Amino acid sequence: MRFGLSSEQETFRDQLRRLLNERSPLERVREVAAGGSGYDERLWTGLAEIGAMGVLVPEEYGGLGMGAFDAGLVLEELGRFTAPAPYLGTAFVAPLVLSESGSNMLAAEWLPRIAGGEARIGLALAEAVGARAGAGVRNEHGRLSGTALMALEAGTADAFITAAGGELWLVRSESAGLTCTAMTSIDRTRALAELRFDGVEAEPLAGGKALTRRALDLARVALAADTVGAADAMFEQATAYSKQRVQFERVIGSFQGVKHALADMATALEPARALTWYALHMQTEMPGSTEAHRLACHAKAHLAEVGRMVARGATEVHGGMGFTDDLGLHFWFKRIGLDRQLLGSPEQIRAEAAAAMAA
Fold this sequence. Notes:
Layout: H1 7-23, H2 26-35, H3 41-49, H4 68-80, H5 87-100, H6 104-115, E1 121-124, H7 126-129, E2 136-140, E3 143-152, E4 159-164, E5 167-172, E6 178-183, E7 192-201, E8 203-205, H8 208-242, E9 246-247, E10 250-251, H9 256-285, H10 290-317, H11 329-341, H12 346-358
Parallel strand pairs: 1-4
Antiparallel strand pairs: 2-3, 3-7, 4-5, 5-8, 6-7, 9-10
Helix pairs in contact: 1-3, 1-4, 4-5, 4-8, 5-6, 5-8, 8-9, 8-10, 8-11, 9-10, 10-11, 10-12
């Protein structure tokens, strides 16, 4: 049995890399990051044209009807290029949540638009993990009130999926009583926001706590896949630099200390990738199960730590240049840093996985 990508998956990944090389080079990432929207329309259009937006959308709604693993490959490549594209919420979490909620009307309205790249869905799920003082969203007869912090991919969202009272709700961006205020984070390639609800009309996504946990599992394993791509890119850049930078008339890659640092990164990153791929696979094979939940938690927690180690090591291999804006290494460093903080720290998520196993 061959464990790896199929020829079709490799072809799709190569096509995606060509698109990202063309439309999301470092210079373009700098421009979008300076603007703060976390969204590049030309890149978004390209993703829709090659079918990336419809990977998880069922065929009857104009998508490809593929699995979470295939969409995870897209996320990995987006992380590799620090691409400013709100893919996680729109094309990874939203299609599965809408399909599994039993709301055929919402699915029929949103899924074809998602597949065509015509709609963007943000995620406001932080309060389902742990609400900060003064934050939290409550449901009062189908109207939401309160505050949701760290809403993901909020810059150009047409709607948000948010958690309130143990349920998931779809809130349209133009709804009366909804205020969206941009939040600043270390990663300027993605837009975060604070959402304030004042009796906002919301549409329920049936499924209760099980669907809420499902959405969190999907978002967490997506963040793990994004971290894999970003960390792999930093490792590749450090390896290439070690073969070019000369000190004492030798390339630094010939020094034992640099060799060991690169070896440590490689031996940590490859098993982490395997864990993430397995966690993605389980989101399709056993969706909503305790095993899928446990793997999503462990993938997110483990990649948070491996990603931080690789980011630090790759920066150190570059020496003082690693901290300059000229190389742009900080874009990957900050992306990994934000991935680590979103939707629970490693310690918190591991405790959650342990509690689920004990239940």
